[in-house]
Amino acid sequence: MSMNILRPSIVLLFTLVLRPAVAQAEGDVARGEKLFARCSACHSTDGTRKIGPTLAGVVGRTAATIGNARFSKALIESEIIWTEETLEEYLSEPKKLVPGTTMVTRIPDLQDRKDVISYLKTLY
User: Fold this and answer.
1) Each residue of 29-48: pLDDT tens digit?
2) I want to staple 51 with a disulfide (CB 3.0 to 4.6 A). Which of 42, 43, 59, 101 is the partner?
3) What range defines the domain where residue 37 resides?
4) 48 domain-assigned
C-alpha cells in the first residue's frame, strides 16, 4: 500500500483519537457555572464583596490586588498572577500553594477545577 494512501487515514485517526482529549482539557463553562455555586457563599462574580473577593476579572489579575477585600499576608506577599495554571494549583490545594492563606475550600477533582476555571475565564 502506498504511503500517500495511508497519510490521510493516519491524520483522520489521530484527529479522532486526540479530539476528545483536547475538548476535555478545556473545561465545560456551563458545568463550571453550576459548580461555582459552592464558591458563591464567599465569592461574587459581579464585583460585590462577600467574605472573599469578587472573582469577576480574576484571570490575569495579580493575587490580593482588588480593592474592597481583605487578604491574608501570605496571599499579598505571594505575588501570584492568576492564570489557568495557578488557579488550577490553588484550587487543588490552596494552603500548599500559599501557606498561610485563609482560603480553606478546595476542589479536589481535576475536571471540576478545569470546568470552574473555564467559567471564571468568562467573568469580566
Assistant:
1) 999 999 999 999 999 999 99
2) 42
3) 27-120
4) yes
Q: Positive or negative CA dihedral for 102, 105, 107, 112?
A: negative
**2 within some domain:** no
- Residue-wise over 85-99: b if at least 16 C-beta within 10 A, else e? ebbbbbbeebeebbe
Mean pLDDT, all residues of the chain = 86
* Long-range contacts (CB closer than 8 Å, 24 or more residues apart) made by 33-38: 33/119, 35/107, 35/112, 35/115, 35/116, 35/119, 36/116, 36/119, 36/120, 38/105
Q: How many domains does the chain have?
A: 1
* Residue at 84 is within a domain: yes
In 3D space, the residue among 47, 31, 35 whose CA is nearest the CA of residue 105 turns out to be 35
In a domain, 108, yes or no: yes
Any residues with CB less than 8 A from the CB of 82 and at least 6 apart, and which? 58, 59, 60, 61, 62, 63, 90
12: its cell numbers: 483522520
d(CA 61, CA 51): 19
